[in-house]
Amino acid sequence: MISTFELGNNVVGLIINRDIEKGNLEEVHKIILKRISESGKINIFCEIAQDKNVAFKCLMEELSFRHDNSNNIDKLAIVTDLSWLRGVMNINDFMVHTEIRSFEIKDRLEAIQWISD
């Protein structure tokens, strides 16, 4: 299940409460593209719930999507307890225009504050 919320005009929030596998990443991308078409540039808060996994192929698709849309995404906060995913997000930071920060789930309030500034 994917829940969405807004933190202002230009911030879209996503909470993903299922494993990210082939076929269900498109739903996330549709939400993001819709908000880009409505608002132009946006910030994204994305939390992956505890004990959920991300398939490697989906990670590659996500990196490609972020690269293709980085001119329309100012900031991206990834909130997850998957340390390997936080590491990949931080490494990829230099390849896109988007400012990216990753947070542990226990630090979600810090992530919300950062993405809202």
From TrEMBL:
InterPro entries per the UniProt record, alphabetical: SpoIIAA-like, SpoIIAA-like_sf, STAS_dom_sf
Pfam families reported in the protein's UniProt record: SpoIIAA-like
Signal peptide region: none
Top-level lineage group: Bacteria
Protein name listed in UniProt: STAS/SEC14 domain-containing protein
Organism (species): Gillisia hiemivivida
